[in-house]
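ok trying this again, last paste got cut off
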Amino acid sequence: MSLPVAIIIILSIIVVAGALALSGFVWAVQTKQFSIKQLNEGAKIIFDDEEPVGTPQDLIFKKSTNDSPNHH
């Protein structure tokens, strides 16, 4: 049974792409890119010095005194 050339090319591209993805994942794990410390630092990088971590500074989620069901 002979496979068409297109199928062989597609399968070889899939194998190479899979090997690259797997090697990238192994590299990321070995260099501790997925460590809890790295993940926590990345989560806190959005805060600057004026905004303390974990303390919302905007009024988006706070209910103001003018919000009432009968207020139009």
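PB: full thing came through this time. Helices lie at 5-30, 36-44.
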